[in-house]
Amino acid sequence: MTEGTKLPSSLSPREIGALVALIDQGRLREAEERALALLAAHPATGMVWKILSVALVRQGKNALAALRRAAELMPRDAEAHGNLGSALLAAGQWSEALAALHRALELRPDDAEALAEAADAAQALGRLDEAIGLYQRALRLDPRPRHVRNNLGNALLALGRCAEAVECYRLALQGGRQDAQLLCNLGDALRQLGELREAVACSERAIAIDPGLGRAHNVLGLCLSGLGERERAVTVLRQALTLQPRSVEVLGNLAGVLRDLGKRREALALYREAVAVDAQRPETHCGLGRTLFELRHLDEALASCRRALALRPDYASAQICLGAALRVLGQIAAAEGCCQAVLAAAPDHVEALVLLGQLRADRGCFAEAEELFERAIRLDPRCVSAYCSIGAQRKMTCNETAWLAGAQALLAQPLPLAERIAVCYALGKYFDDVEQYESAFQHYREANELSKRYGSRYDGGKLAARVDRLIERFDAAFVRELQSHPQLQCGAALSDRPVFIIGMPRSGTSLAEQILASHPQVFGAGEVRFWDDAFTAVERTGRDARAATALLPAFAAQYLARLAAAPSSAARVVDKMPANFLYAGLIHAAFPRARIIHMRRDPIDTCLSIYFQNFFNMSPYGNDLEHLAHYYEQYVRITDHWRSVLPQAALLDVPYEALVADQEGWTRRMLAFVALPWDPRCLEFHRTERTVITASRWQVRQRIHAQSVGRWSHYEQHVGPLRRLLSAARAGAAVR
Q: Could you tell me the sign of the dihedral formed by the alpha carbons of 319, 321, 325, 330, in that order?
C-alpha cells in the first residue's frame, strides 16, 4: 500500500468500505459525520480525508481543506491531486489548480479528464499554447467530450488561429444536438475569419435555440456591422445590452457601431459608461479617445489615449489616436514619436504609415508622404485615409486612373459614415482638378448631405444674437475709453508681438501667414485657440464694463503665455485663427498695439471653397449653401462694425484677389503694417520650411497664382443662395 494510504492498525478496511458505501448510497451527511469522527481519532489517515472531501463536494460544501490534506497525506495518489486540482479550478485559483493537476498527470499521464482540466487552468492563466497542447492530448485519448473541443477552439481563437478554431467548433457540433454556445463560438470564429454571412447564420441559429444568450446577439451585431447593415446591428446590440447590461464588451461594440453611423454623442455616453463599469480595459479608453477626438475634445482625447497606453503600452490604435490629436494641437515631434513607436514594432502598420505620411506632408515633404500613402494602399487596398490623403496633397490629373478606380471602388463598400464622406470629398476634388465640374459638384453635394447625418444643427439665430452682443459691447465709445485706460498702458497689454490674421475660412489666411512667416523675424503659430473662452468670460460680467475691462490685462498675459513656443528671436508671432473675426474688438482691447490683418475674398469663391473642404473642426454651417450664405452675412456685419470702430492703424483689409494680382505690393503693405522691414524671402514663401496642418498645406507651397479667383463660375448653376452675397462683395470693394 502506498504512503498515505496505509491504514492505522486500529482502523479496519471494513470501516473504510462502510464510508464508501455511504457515499455510493448518497447518504452524504452521514458519510461526512462518520469521516469526521474517524479523523478525530486518526487525523493522519489520507483515505478518510479523501472520502470526506468527496462527501463535502457532493453536498456543495467547501472541500478545499479536506482535499489539500488528502493530497498532502497521499502524495502518490493521482486521484487525490486530480480532485484538488478540480476544486481549485472551480474556485478560480488557477495557478494552484494547474500545479495540482500537473502532479496528478505525473502519476497518471493518460488521464483525459485531468488533461482537459489542466488545459482549462492554463487557458485561464493566459498560457494559451500550453492549453492547446493539453487539450489536444486529452482529445487523442478521448475525442468525445464536446466541451473539450469547444475550449480548444476558444484557445485557438484567442491566438488568432481562426481557421483551426472553426474546424474545432464544427467537430464539436457533429453528431449531437445543436448547442447554442457552440454555435455562437463558431459564429464568432467565422466572423474573425471574414466569413460574415455564414457567421450571421450561426449566430441566428444560436439565438433561435437560446434567445437569452447575450453573447450570440453581440456576435450577430458585429457581423451585421461588418456587412454594412449598421442600423440592424444597433438593434441587435441593444438587445445584447438588455441581456448583459454591464457587459463592457457589448457597450464598446454598440458605441463603435453608433460612431460609424455618425452618432458620436450617443457613442460617447456608452464609452463613458463602459469605463465606469471597468476602467481597466484599454480598448474602452481607446474607443473613448477616438470619439472625443472626432468631437474636437482634444485634451480629453489625449487623456483617454494615455490611459489606454498606461494599461497596454504596446497598444497601436491608442498610439495612433494620440498621435492624431497631438498633430492637430501642433505638437508635431510628439505625434511623429507615436508613429515611430508603432512602426518600430510593426513596420507595415497601415494607420501609422498614413499618419506619418500626413506629418510629412504638413512639413511640405510631399513626395515622401505619397510614398507612405502608396505603401499603405499596397498593404490595404481599402485604406480610405491613404486615398484621401493622396488626393488632398496635390493637383490630380486624368492619368490617375488607378487612384480613381480605387476611390470609386471604396464607395461600393459599406463604409462607416466618416469614411464615405471623406471619399466623396476626395472624388469631388479629383473631378474639380480634371475640370469635370458637374461630377465634382455631385460628389461634394453628397459629402455635405452625408455630413448632416452627424446631427449637428446650424443655429443662425444664435450666431446673429452673438454678433448683436459683440456690436453692442464693443461699440465706438468703449473702444475710445480703452485708449486711455491706465490698466492697458503697461505690462503685457503693450506688446506688439502678436499679429492676428482673421477672415472667413478659405479666404487666404494660410497664404498670408505663410508669406509673413517667411520673414526671418516672424514665427507662424498657426491657429491659437483662446478668444472664444475669453469672450465667454467677458459675457459673465454682464453689463459691468469696469469688470470686463479688469479682465483684459490677464487675457493679455495668458495669451502671450500661449505663444511661449515661439523662438525668442521672433519679433512678431502670427495667429491665423480665421474665426477670430468675431473678436477683433476684444483682441484690440487686450492688445491695443497688436495688428490685425483681415483677409477678404470673393464671397461665393469663399463659401464654395468651404463647401468643398472636409474640415476637421468646421461648424455645420459649412454643409449647406443657405447656411453658408447666412454665416457669411453675419461675418460681413461684424467685420463692417470693426472697421467702423477700430483705429485705422489696428486693422488692415487685404483682398485675396489683389494679393494674388500684386504679390509684392501687398506683401510690402502687410510688412509695413506690422512694422517690419522688407525682406525678399517673403516672395519665395512657397520655399519656406515649416509645419502647416491646415487644409491649405499644399497650396501655400506653390507659387502664387490666380487659378482660384472666380472659381465659382464653373459651378454657377449650383450656387443658388450664395448669389445674394455678391452685393457684399461690391460693398467690400467700395470700402477698399
A: positive
The answer for residues whose C-beta is within 8 angstroms of residue 470's C-beta and 6 or more apart is 535, 582, 583, 585, 638, 641
Q: Quote the strand ranges of 630-686, DSSP E.
A: 651-655
Domain ranges of the chain: 460-603+629-735
Structure confidence at residue 476 (pLDDT): 86
Residue partners of 289: CB distance under 8 A and separation at least 6: 301, 302, 303, 304, 305, 308, 318, 321, 322, 325
Nearest to 663 by CA among 518, 530, 491: 518
**DSSP string of 406-438, one letter each residue:** HHHHHHTS---HHHHHHHHHHHHHHHHHTT-HH
In which element (H, E) is residue 501 found? strand 498-502
Q: Which of 323, 327, 284 is nearest to 304 (CA)?
A: 284
Contact between 430 and 400 under an 8 Å Cβ cutoff? The reply is yes
H or E segment to which residue 41 belongs:
helix 28-41
Q: Which residue has cell 480525508? A: 49
Q: Which three cell numbers stand for residue 111?
A: 488521464
Is residue 364 a contact partner of residue 689, using CB atoms and an 8 Å limit? yes
460-603+629-735 sits in which CATH class?
alpha beta
Q: Give the three-class secondary structure for 499.
A: strand
Angstrom distance (rounded) from CA 651 to CA 674: 10
Angstrom distance (rounded) from CA 711 to CA 662:
19
Give me the DSSP letters along 4-32.
Answer: TTSPPTTS-HHHHHHHHHHHHTT-HHHHH
Find where cell 468643398 sits: 612
What single DSSP character describes residue 498?
E
Model pLDDT, residue 4: 45
Half-sphere exposure of 457 (CA within 13 A, CB side): 4
Alpha-carbon distance values, 39 to 43, 327, 544 (Å): 4, 73, 89
Least confident span in 463-467, 573-577, 618-622: 618-622
CA quadruple 640, 644, 646, 651: dihedral positive or negative?
positive
pLDDT at residue 410, as a whole number: 96
Write out the three cell numbers for 172: 464539436
Which residue's C-alpha cell is 452682443?
A: 469
Half-sphere exposure of 504 (CA within 13 A, CB side): 29
- pLDDT, one tens digit per residue, over 652-678 is 999 999 999 999 999 999 999 999 999
Task: Locate 322 and state its grid cell.
Answer: 494620440
Report yes or no: 499 and 517 within 8 Å, Cβ to Cβ: no
Comparing C-alpha atoms, which of 75, 86, 94, 29 is closest to residue 55?
29
Place of cell 500537473: 102
Backbone angles phi, psi at 347, to 5 degrees: -60, -20
